[in-house]
Amino acid sequence: MSQRYLVTGGAGFVGSHLVLALLRGGASVTVLDDLSTGHEAAVPKGARLVHGSVADPDALGRAFAEGPFEAVFHFASLTLVGESMREPVRYIAANVAGGAALVEACIRHRVARLVLSSTANLFSEPAKIPIDEDEAIIPGSPYGESKAMLERLLFWADRIHGLRSACLRYFNAAGADPDGEAGEDHRPETHLIPLVLDAAAGRRPPLIVFGDDYPTPDGTCIRDYIHVADLATAHLAVLEPLRTRSVRYNLGTGTGHSVREVIAAAEAVTGRSVPHTIGPRREGDPAVLIAASDRIRRELGWRPRFPALETIIAHAWAWRQRNPHGYR
Ligand SMILES: NC(=O)c1ccc[n+]([C@@H]2O[C@H](COP(=O)([O-])OP(=O)(O)OC[C@H]3O[C@@H](n4cnc5c(N)ncnc54)[C@H](O)[C@@H]3O)[C@@H](O)[C@H]2O)c1
Ligand SMILES: O=c1ccn([C@@H]2O[C@H](COP(=O)(O)OP(=O)(O)O[C@H]3O[C@H](CO)[C@H](O)[C@H](O)[C@H]3O)[C@@H](O)[C@H]2O)c(=O)[nH]1
């Protein structure tokens, strides 16, 4: 019998790519998603969708009735840093309550392993770049704070109940399924690469570059863009160590790219110009965020298959070209 997994938020960008990877590996997948930002059409064929919130006991009951699960992957979350700066209470309440309800259900249903989508926003004042797992956790927003709280909740769930967990701190998730079966469709879209590609395609007004007076070589912010398919393989790679211990890893490629470099790479990939203007800084944006992913490389042998920015952008562009209206 095939192994069965629960993926919360599996109708969203990163979650749907993990669902694809699990299905391609022969697993059975249940997705629990309230479709608040995800899309029913993004749930890959072959997975079962339970429509509802992780905070709703009835929806959790319907999802867990499909178990027992080998492991649970928790992507479902409010995810926007900027929005969380305006609505801190809603962000912390929703993310912590949803995560806590899910963890409680995992304990009750004797799930042994849970993987949490955590974030680079834990590290708003890095003492050194690249950022490793020993860096002090100083969340940059209520969104980051909610992930820090869930990481602590998981620490205690392991210590007291033996629920093993992996906290995966993604840096900038980007790209699309290399075979074109899934892609990025956030509404509203706030992420740089899809905005750049839509500007190139003429589907949006010119991109606004948020500040060109940062202490970086070209003045624009530097980020570590990691292919969403490589995030998926990292989720699969942690399942083995989770049999015996909890882990936490920072996930990026270890290479940073400025906003200007992203624009130049997109122009090279698409053969079009990316109309853009320079605007003010966006509140809360650190100048440079780059992950040291040495620990997961060393301990688990994980490597990004698609580390090059051009490949990440090419896959995102290919999906967007075939799906100009996203998932509709
Ligand atoms: N995209 C990134 O660059 C990035 C970076 C760091 C961390 N993350 C984390 O990765 C995860 C996935 O991010 P994403 O970009 O795929 O976001 P997304 O919005 O595309 O996906 C989130 C999914 O969760 C669902 N959801 C939200 N609240 C829910 C609830 N209470 N119950 C059930 N479903 C709910 C949404 O409908 C959506 O399908 C999030 O936890 C996010 O915080 C993302
Ligand atoms: O219209 C835009 C959009 C973005 N940017 C710049 O592009 C870079 C990337 O911005 P994104 O919004 O794509 O990503 P962030 O680095 O802000 O956020 C990412 O990392 C965060 C943690 O730091 C969270 O985890 C979040 O979910 C994740 O998308 C930033 O320097 C931003 O200032 C622009 O110049 N113009």
From TrEMBL:
Subunit structure, as described in the record: Homodimer.
NAD-dependent epimerase/dehydratase domain segment(s): 6-252
UniProt protein name: UDP-glucose 4-epimerase
UniProt EC number: 5.1.3.2
Enzyme kind, highest EC tier: isomerase
Known catalytic reactions: UDP-alpha-D-glucose = UDP-alpha-D-galactose
Pathway info: Carbohydrate metabolism; galactose metabolism
NCBIfam families for the chain: galE (TIGR01179)
GO molecular function, one term: UDP-glucose 4-epimerase activity
InterPro entries, per the entry: Epimerase_deHydtase, UDP_G4E
Similarity section: Belongs to the NAD(P)-dependent epimerase/dehydratase family.
Recorded name of the encoding gene: galE
Cofactor field: NAD(+)
Any single biological process term in GO: galactose catabolic process via UDP-galactose, Leloir pathway
Keywords: Carbohydrate metabolism, Isomerase, NAD
Keyword Hydrolase listed: no
PANTHER family associated with the record: UDP-ARABINOSE 4-EPIMERASE 1, UDP-GLUCOSE 4-EPIMERASE
UniProt key word Transmembrane: no
